[in-house]
Every structure is written in structure tokens, then in C-alpha cells.
């Protein structure tokens, strides 16, 4: 018994008939859209993991020079991790951090 050499094929684009103003109009399109969003999030998360491994390797290899030599990887990693967590879909990056309490006016 050998390994299967086929590649799984799936639709990579969002569904054409999904209406964001009325998502419950077509339940099949809503389900396909949800699958598409989840798939894209997992791809972004895995890309960030790969960059993190490259960054760890660079830190180990470069030693004390890692601040200069690995700066480009740090920037790529930070850019790739902005807004990719679950529940951070539509919020701007300024709202992703801890909440800032408003000063109470008396």
C-alpha cells in the first residue's frame, strides 16, 4: 500500500451568492462563507507559526547580533500576527489591545 498522491481540491474563493446584508437568506451560502473565513484564518495562523519558527532559528544562530540581523523577521512576524485571532474580525488594530478605561467625569 502506497501513499495517495492526489491533492485535495476545494473552492478557494468566497461564495458568489452570499449577501452580507441578509446572511440568513441563503443558508448554504452562509455556511460556505463561514468555512471560507475559517480556512483563511487557519492559513494566516499557520503562516505566523512558520515565521515564528524562522525567528527562533535566527535568534539562536545570530546570538548577540540578533537585533540587527533578525529585524526583518521580527517585523514580518508582528505584521502577520495583527488581527488574526478568533473574534477580531472587523475591529481596527487599535482595539485589539487591553481595554482603556475612560476617565469618569463628575
TrEMBL record:
Residues 9-19 have a biased composition (Acidic residues). Pfam families: NDUFB10. InterPro entries: NADH_UbQ_OxRdtase_su10, NDUFB10. The keyword Electron transport applies. Its main location: mitochondrion. It is a peripheral membrane protein. Keywords: Electron transport, Membrane, Mitochondrion, Mitochondrion inner membrane, Respiratory chain, Transport. Residues 1-24, 83-106 are annotated as: Disordered. It is found in: Mitochondrion inner membrane. GO terms for cellular component: mitochondrial inner membrane; respiratory chain complex I. Belongs to the complex I NDUFB10 subunit family. PANTHER family: NADH DEHYDROGENASE [UBIQUINONE] 1 BETA SUBCOMPLEX SUBUNIT 10, NADH-UBIQUINONE OXIDOREDUCTASE PDSW SUBUNIT. This is NADH dehydrogenase [ubiquinone] 1 beta subcomplex subunit 10-B. It comes from Manihot esculenta (Cassava).
Amino acid at each position: 500500500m502506497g501513499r495517495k498522491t492526489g491533492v485535495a481540491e476545494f473552492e478557494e474563493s468566497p461564495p458568489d451568492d452570499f449577501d452580507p446584508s441578509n446572511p440568513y437568506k441563503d443558508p448554504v451560502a452562509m455556511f460556505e462563507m463561514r468555512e471560507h473565513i475559517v480556512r483563511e484564518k487557519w492559513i494566516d495562523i499557520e503562516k505566523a507559526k512558520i515565521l515564528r519558527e524562522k525567528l527562533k532559528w535566527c535568534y539562536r544562530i545570530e546570538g548577540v547580533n540578533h537585533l540587527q540581523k533578525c529585524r526583518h523577521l521580527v517585523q514580518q512576524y508582528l505584521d502577520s500576527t495583527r488581527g488574526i485571532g478568533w473574534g477580531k474580525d472587523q475591529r481596527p488594530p487599535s482595539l485589539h489591545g487591553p481595554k482603556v478605561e475612560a476617565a469618569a467625569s463628575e
